[in-house]
Amino acid sequence: MYSKWNSETHYPPAASHLPPGQSPQQMTERLKSLEDQMALLIKLMESNNQLLRSIEEQQNRVCTSGGGGSVIVRM
After folding, report:
1. Which residue stretches belong to region Disordered (predicted)?
2. CB 71 within 8 Å of CB 62
3. DSSP letters of 21-63?
């Protein structure tokens, strides 16, 4: 879903824009780590949304009784 984020070419920031004492390699590693954490967060959020939809479906299920009528069951 968010694959376009990973397909873009990333360029390290200019040395003049780096915090003092931080190399371009360190900045690249930190950005990669943040990108990985965001990807995991998105994956977990999508999983959570799927679980919530499943719970909602269970709460709204329609049960058919032997008499032919339908009863909406709310849990």
Report:
1. 1-30
2. yes
3. T--HHHHHHHHHHHHHHHHHHHHHHHHHHHHHHHHHHHHT-EE
